[in-house]
Predict the 3D structure of the following.
Amino acid sequence: MSSQEKEDINLNCSLSGYDYELPGELIAQNPAVPRDSSRLLVVNSLDNGEETQPLHCIFRDLPELLQPGDLLVMNNTKVIPARLYGHKSSGAEVEVLLLEERQYNCWLALVKPGKRFKLGTKIIFPGGKNNSTAKSLLDQPLTATVIETDSATGGRLLQFDLPEKVSLVEVLGQFGEIPLPPYITGSMAADEQYQTVYADRPGAIAAPTAGLHFTPELLQKLSDRQINQAFITLHVGVGTFRPVEVEDVTTHEMHEEWIQVPQATIDQIKATQEAGGRVIAVGTTAVRALEGAAQLGDIQAYIGKTNLFIYPGYEWRVVDGLITNFHLPRSSLLMLVSALIGRERLLKIYSIAIAAHYRFYSFGDAMLIINNS
């Protein structure tokens, strides 16, 4: 093995190998209008030792870029109004970000200011902020009590005080707001713009953003061209966005996220493979769900949690291609995409996208990575 090859392997496992500089003006603050007018960078997943150039397209070109018999697998999770503002009995203001429900109406949450939340602390959420159109199901302030700390996330377990048979998810629209990523500071986007058009399974704290580019009309055009569609559910949680903080990325531990890969989707995947079609994941969350359901070998229906961390060297079991947005430096998402086409090549492609003024991150443009050989 040459010294260059050894250096490349070391960089694949090194956090600093996934760094790049992005001009701030390329961080998208609002989605494209209409959704499918965003730009699409098309990359062949097979390099074959050649420096193939990506194609510059528009997302609505997707039906012509795929082949009849291909299968798009999408994440149908729905973002909940997970950010709540309230106060303690002392009047001190509080900010809460719900992460996941551990037991009925008992949620793991990140809280600010975290160090002041001792066991037994009661939080009162008056509601009414940015949610005037929400249906009123609770005619009193929402309250919760801190019952436990969580060392893995630094968060707290909050037991919400609600009438019997009333779920927190049902009343969140009265009290919470959709949590946009912190790098989106000037967005005028309404809540529905941070949801995919096929979102119908509430539970995520962030959108599976590769799916934001689809419109009902585009989905119909894909169907008309016999490009099939199937769904999984991965409730996007803190694990997707937690920064990688260890220099040796192989020691990074992903936070678990809840997934469901139904039997109907498994049947579509196997039929696609048997017919010679390609399985194309829409977003990194769809990748993690599909590959997570295949960790025992053959993909099978699955309901539960996954902490699968994909980085270069990963042995792919299900996914043939990927639609994805452009991701933050040093992120686990960047490492996942690198596992599909190589770290060095991906960074070169990102340089091309930056030079061409593509828009980055959640509301940004997209990339299609697929084997067109």
In short: The chain has two domains: 13-79+189-370, 83-177. The chain has a mean pLDDT of 90. Residues 343-355 form the longest helix (13 residues).
